Predict the structure of Anti-sigma-W factor RsiW.
Amino acid sequence: MKCNVAVVYMHDYLDGDLSREDTNQLREHLNGCPACQARYDSLERTDALVKALPIEKTPENLGDKIMKSLPRKRRPTKAWTSWVGRHPAVSAAAIFVVVMLSSFMSMWNQSRELSVSGPDLSHLIIEGNNVIVPEGQKVVGDLTVTNGDVQVLGDIEGNLTVIDGELKPLASTAHIAGQIKTIDRAVDWFWYKVSSFFGTLAYGS
């Protein structure tokens, strides 16, 4: 499998649209390609962070703010449209960065309340901003905690993602079957989103 095909498969896999056969091919390619494995890890972290964010975060007047922030025209209209026509990729990238940065600042300024997501939360203990997996209890599936600290005393049969929080040292009784990921800074989300976009442009060109 070529790397550009693997990139497409990564996005389809994270969206849940990749067949079992193609998934196996993707995993085989990732095992033998460190560059694609690093890219997939970045995309996976971004996907986990985006899913953990509240949905209705784009301000109603975002379009007006973006238009007002653009520089005033200094060239004739024909020259500007001609330049955009000659550099479509750069123009699209610039608009993407402006929109993503505006959305990012809006989202990051919203409430920083604790958020816990996953298919099996019944065995968790939540004390303030602390999320505890008790000793002798098992959480089945992936667990994502945002704006909180996590203490694992029992089992997690899946991945654990901690966003803007702290994973306390694992107890001797703890067991996590999947990967452990921590995203400590707001910049990570914006960086991985932008790098993912430009990487897709590079592979597509």
